[in-house]
Each structure stands twice: as C-alpha cells, then as structure tokens.
Write a structure and sequence with these properties.
The protein contains 12 helices and 17 strands. The protein is about 40% helix and about 20% strand. Helix 1 packs parallel to helix 5.
Amino acid sequence: MEKQIYEDIAARAGGSCAVAVVGPPKCGKRTAVRALAASLGAACGEEPAFRLAEGVSVAVGDADALAGCGAAILVTSDGSFGGLQRAELAAAEGEIAAKLTAAGVPFIVLVNSADPASEGCRAALAAWGERALAADAEKGADADEVFSCLLLSFPPVRLDLFLPDWMSALPEDSKVAADILARVRAAAPDIVTLRGCACIGEAFADGDLTFESCETDAAAGRARCRFAAKEGAFYRVLSEECGEEIGGDLQLMAYVRALKDAKRFYDLYSKAFAAAETGGYAVVQAGGEALLRPPEPVRRGAKCGIRLRADAPSYHVVRVEVLSDVSPITGEGEQGEQLARNMLDCYERDADAFWNTDLFGRTFRDMVCDGLREKTVPLDARDKLRRALTRIVNEGKGGVLCILL
C-alpha cells in the first residue's frame, strides 16, 4: 500500500519529489523526520533525511528556500513542549504556510503533541481542518497516514461531475444547467486540494441535486463526484421544459400520448416548412397509399387504349411577405412636421421606445402587427387559388395570368 502512495506522490510532482519538513523552531522537525523514517524502516543519516521511493526524498528544509521543493510537511506544536506558547506558534506557522502557498507547494500540517488527544491539540488541528494530523514524534509516527494526507493535498487536475442521465438532454441555456454551472463556479475557488473536491457537495445543498460520493484518483489528480436528483426534481424540470404541469407517471404518459400526433405531423411537414423558409416554396406528399382509379378506355383517332389514373393529396407551402402600412396623422402645418421629426428622432435614439409609444390608447407596435394578422386570402378566393394551383401542378403549364378585382 505504502509503495503506491509514494509512487503517486512522485507522479503528481512530475516524476520526482523532494519533501521538505519545515516549521517554527523547537517544534520537533528533526524528530518528526526520524520518526517517519523509523515507521518505514528506512535509514536516516546524521542530518535527518531519507528516501521514500525512487525519486522521492524527505529532509528538513528551509521555508525561505523552497526552490526544488515538490511538497512540504509543516511541523508545528500545540505548545505542550519546547517552552513555546500556542499563540506564538500560530503566528509563525501562519507565515510559513503563506510562503508555501505563494510558492505553490502542496503541504500538510503535522501537529507535534505530547498528548494528541488533548483539548489543546484538537484546537490546533481545528485551525487547519482536514489538512492537519496529530502525532507524538517522540513515540513515533504513521508514515502511511502522513504521506496519504500529503498526496491528497496536491491540487486537482480535473474534476468530473456525474449528473443524472436525463439532465444531459437539457440545453445549455436551460435554467437547471445555468444553476449547476453557477454553483460550480462559485465553489471552484475553494477547491485547492484534491481532498477538498468533496466540498463541492455543499454548493448543491439547497438545489435540485444531492451529493452522493467523491472518488479520487490521486496519481492523476482527478476527482469524480456523483450526484443524484432530489425527489420531485425530474417532474418539476420536465414541467418547466414542456410548459405543462406534469406531476407523476400518469400525467407523463398522457402527455406523451398527446405528443404522438404532433410528432407525426412534425416529421411529415417540418422539412417542407424549412424549405419554404429559405426558398419561398416547398411541397410535401401527404403519404399513405395512392387512390387508384378504375381504368378508362381512350380512343385517339384509329388508336385505342386505356387511361390509368391515381390520386394523392399534396401540400404546397408558400412563404408570403405580408406588409402592413400604418400612417397615423400627427397634425397639420409646422406643428405636424415638428411632431413627425420628434418621432423620427425618438426612433433613432431608442427603437424599442419608439415602437412602444402610445397613441390613442395603442402602441405603434400593436398598430402594425394588427395589420399583419388581418391580412389573408379572402374566403371567396381561396378555392379559386387552390384550383389554379392544381391546374399548374397537373398540367405543367408555367404561364399564370392573375387579375385582381
């Protein structure tokens, strides 16, 4: 187990890692190095230093000379020995931690205590959270525990969020997707270590998701956090997306059945409407079996034969540019001209404000839009238009004479 830990530390540091043991004076840095070496059965020289594995070494370091340092163990104390007060130590270790952070060196805090279970030691640990461990270096230290903690203090390289499968069908601009991204961005600055990736679950405490687990690949610096949807979230989001109230399986089944005909219509005619949007005209066959008519005898001079006919409906989609022209009278003479100029100036300054201008209880926007809605083919001309188009299609004659009365 320990071999894998040390290989992962080397991998995270780029192949080799010099672990510096730093801290305030009289906190037991040298004793801690010897205790770690003894825990692993490694040889520790006169100047406390030893090799963990290929490319990984541990030695007492200088917080003011961090060049070449791949990681660090900040050894401090709860004030239980050395004649130092905890307040003095807290200020000194804070300065060293700031230097390590500024240099981008991953580190953990090892609180050296004559009684690791004491209240004073627990208070010292609480100041550093999950980054800190307690040990009595005089009696020994658990190297596996210390270096496992150090490995998780490296920054994450990648954080993968596994959401419920149905959320992948939502568009990026959906309310749910936007909320998830906002929560991740808000939590990201606080995730500075691989161990800290699990805190992203706190960002979703009051959302649609519930945090399930966080798995880490320490060697790759990768964390995989899994979320599940809270009860009722699926149907609430579904209701928002489709614009219908869907509260359970019954309403969902009814809604899906209602969409069946709409989907069939869309599949049949959507391409024609898209073509009409770009080209102005499109035709679509209604589908289904053609109606085969009985054969009819045909005589042409001395020749005789039969006529075979079949009927099938088709729909012709035509895009028509409907124009609406409204000319409100603004007044007479110079007063009218001045008012017209003011309206044009208003349009140039703010087009939306101009179209929302109220005149006689209606806005300009309402006036022109009502004109668009009112224009259509007159009832008595619709059948004539259909018959004319039918002749053009069946007889293949492109000449059209249109007389508007």
